[in-house]
Amino acid sequence: MHIRRVFACLTMATALVLGAALTASASGGAAYQIAFSNNCNNPSVAACAPPPASFGLGGDWGSVRLNADGMGTAQFATANHRTPGIPTGATHFSLVVSWYGTSTPPYPSVAPDPNGSYLVITVVNIPSLGSLVTPATPGHYKFQGAQFGMPGVNYMVQINSI
Known about the structure:
mainly beta, eight-stranded antiparallel β-sheet, 2 helices, 8 strands, 8% helix, disordered N terminus
């Protein structure tokens, strides 16, 4: 399972994201702390269909620390279950990322930013994994698929400015 999956899932609003904040004293110079989770657990929803139509059943969970110098680190886990043709189980990644803020992101954001400010986060140590765009305004952003006829498809992301 590739990290690209989480970026696409978040962009498509097909996942559940959990966030946890760190205090400024624990941040050690971090500019942002982002926590996320997403889940796609309903095989009857197109977003959870097996490849090549979509990414299949499973979820992604992670935490990103963005430092004031434009670099950062991320811990990320992805898991698949009951998706034909895809190995079942979890995979963990330790990532090095770069980031910048912008009002005109090059890709869709996981959620609209109420102030029009976005963070573009790019994986450095595994470039093929791509980029993720999140709101820059601190807050809790979520998508609950059941409200839109997609039960089992949820995401949340917590953005904290440190």
